[in-house]
Structure prediction request, 430 residues.
Amino acid sequence: MAIENLIKIIKTKLADRFLRNLGWLGLSQIFIRVSRLAATVVLARLLTKEDYGLAALVLTTNEFVNVFTQNGIWAKLVQADAADLPKLCQTSYWLNWIVCGLVFLGQCIASFPVSWFYHDPRIVLPICVMATVYLIIPIALVQASLSNRENRLHVSAIASGIQVSVDNILTIILAFFGFGMWAIVLPKVLVAPVWVIVHYRSNPWRPTSEFTLDRWQEIVRFGRSVLGVKIMHTLINNLDYVIAGRFLGVEALGLYYFAFNAGLGISMSAINALDTALFPHLCDARNQPREFKARYFQTFTRVAWIIFPLVILQSGLAPFYVPIIFGQKWIPAIPLLILICLSAIPRPFANVASNGLWAIDKPDWDFAWNILFTGAFAIALLVGVNWGVLGVAVAVFLTHSIASPAYTVWVSSYISKVMDKEIVAIEAKE
Prediction:
C-alpha cells in the first residue's frame, strides 16, 4: 500500500505541468552553470580586474538598452484570448522589427556618451558590436512567445541551454588566446543565431507577407507597464554597477562584478527558471479563481524549498571555495559575495507576487511598486558607496531584505481577497 501511494504521488507530480517545465528549465540551468563555472574559473585566472571592469561596463550598457526588447509584446501573446491570437501575432512580428531596429541604433549612439561618462573610449566598439544581436532576434520572437503560451518551456530550456553553454565555451577559448574583455563580449554576439534557430524550428507559426500594425494600441497598452517593470528591474540589477564604476573606478567595479557573478549566478539561474515557468502557469488558470489561488500560494512553498538551501549552502561555503577555485587574488571579494548571495533569498518571492499581478491584468500596480523600490535602492547605493564596494553590497542586501518581503505580503493579501470574491460570485451563480 505504501509503495502504491508513493507511485501515485510521483505520477501526480509528473503530471504537474509547472513542475515539468521547471524540471526542463532546471536541467538547462545545470548545463549553463557547469559551463559558466568553468568559464568563471578560467576568466578569474586569466583576466585582470580591469578586464572584468571594462566587460562590466559594456554588458551593463547592453542590459539597459536590451530592456526595450522585453517590452511586454511576448507577455501579451501569452495572456491573450485564443480568438485574438492570429491578428496579434502578425502585428507583434512587425512591432518587434521596428523596436529592435530602433534599439540597435539607440545602443550604437549611446556608446559615445557612455564612454564619455566613464572616461574610457575603449568601450565604444564592443557596445556597438553587441548591438548587432538586435538585427536577428525578431525572426523568432513570436515563436518563442507562442511556445511559452503553450507551456512548451522545454523549447526555451533547450535554446537557452545550448546558447549559453556555447557562449561559455567560446569565452574560455578566447580567454586562453588573450582576448581580454572581448572574451566575454564577443561570444554573446556569435551565439545569438542559436536561440533564433531553435525557436524558429520549434514552432510552426510564420508571418505573412502583409505588413500590419492592426491593434497595436492593445499590445502597447498592456506592454507599457510590463516594459516599465522591466526597465525598473534593469535599473535595480545594474545600478550598483553604474554607481561603483563611476565613483570607485574600473578595478573596484571588477572586484564587485566578480563577486556578483560568482555569488549570485547560481541563485539567479534558479530564480530566472522559476520566473519563466510561473507566468504561463498562472495565466493558464486566470479564469479559474480557486485553481489560480492554489497555484499562486503553492508556488511560495516550492520557491522556499529551492532557494533557501541553495543560497545558504553557497554563501556558507564561499570562504572555502573562492580561494581554491578562483584563486587567492579574489579573497577580498568573499564578504561581497556572501552579502550579495544572501540578498537573493527574498527576490523570487517578490517575483511570484509580480507574476500574480501580471496574470490578473494588474502590471501597472507592479510598475508603480518598482518605481518606488528603484528610488529607494538608488538612495541606499549612493549612501553605501561612501564605504566602498562593501558599502554597496550592504546596501543591496538591506534594500532587498526589507522591501521585497513587505511587497510580497501586500500583493498576496490582495490576490487572496480578489480570488475569494470571485469564488463566492461563482458559487452564488451555481
Q: What stands out?
A: Confidence is low (pLDDT under 50) at residues 1-15. The longest helix spans residues 388-429.
